[in-house]
Write a structure and sequence with these properties.
The chain is of the alpha+beta class. The chain has one domain. The protein has 3 helices and 11 strands, in the order βαββββαββββαββ. The chain is globular. Bound molecules: 2-acetamido-2-deoxy-beta-D-glucopyranose (2 copies). The site of one 2-acetamido-2-deoxy-beta-D-glucopyranose (NAG) has 6 residues, from strand 6.
């Protein structure tokens, strides 16, 4: 597991990295438009959406000179918990999403694509997770890695950690996964 660097003390953390774009506070998709909706998991229990957000750079502003598709499977990410405690997702609801991702990993495919500017959201009961591609190129990621990150953040950014969910930000900032209450 490569995403174990848990940084719970956000106020301390933010001082050292304030010049960079690490989203150590919850990301909120502005002017969200749902581009497609589907379900995942053995019983289609998890709702998934591809959305566009106005507060992410759009396709038009991206350089066409970039690599067309980059596999970011297995990249290291760093966990940030969102303070304070209270109002987080039930981690067992997040575990349903995690299991559904593993089911799809085995029955549909190990990889999925995330186009620039269009995060992928997944929701079950109290838990929501989404993957944001922050790069200038399309990314390919692994369902089993997303599953692991959801499980890890859900169970380690709880009220015991003075948290209510969190994210895991790729070391090179090219993507992050957020876990929060719906
Ligand atoms: C990303 O993928 C989309 C959909 O396949 C494609 O239309 C677009 O040209 C790609 N963008 C880049 C930067 O490769
Ligand atoms: C991801 O996009 C690439 C380039 O468009 C394509 O060749 C590949 O089949 C896609 N992979 C998946 C899992 O959809």
């Amino acid at each position: 597991m490569k995403f174990l660097a848990l940084i719970a003390a956000l106020s301390t953390f933010a001082v050292g990295v304030s010049a960079t774009a690490i989203p150590s506070t919850p990301f909120v998709c502005e002017n969200e438009k749902v581009l497609s909706t589907y379900t995942i998991g053995k019983n289609n229990e998890v709702e998934a959406q591809v959305v566009s957000c106005s507060n992410l750079p759009g396709l038009a502003s991206r350089s066409v000179a970039q690599k067309r598709q980059t596999n970011v499977c297995g990249n290291t990410c760093n966990t940030n918990c969102f303070t304070p405690s209270g109002g987080g997702p039930n981690p067992y609801d997040c575990q349903v999403i995690s299991d559904a991702l593993l089911y799809d990993n085995q029955n549909i495919g190990t990889l999925f694509n995330i186009t620039v500017g269009t995060p992928i959201y997944m929701q079950y009961a109290s838990c929501e997770t989404f993957f944001v591609n922050q790069a200038t190129y399309n990314e390919t990621y692994c369902r089993n890695d997303w599953s692991s990150v959801v499980e890890y953040v859900a169970f380690n950014c709880q009220s015991q950690q003075n948290a209510h969910g969190g994210n895991c930000v790729a070391s090179d900032q090219s993507w992050f996964i957020q876990v929060q209450a719906t």
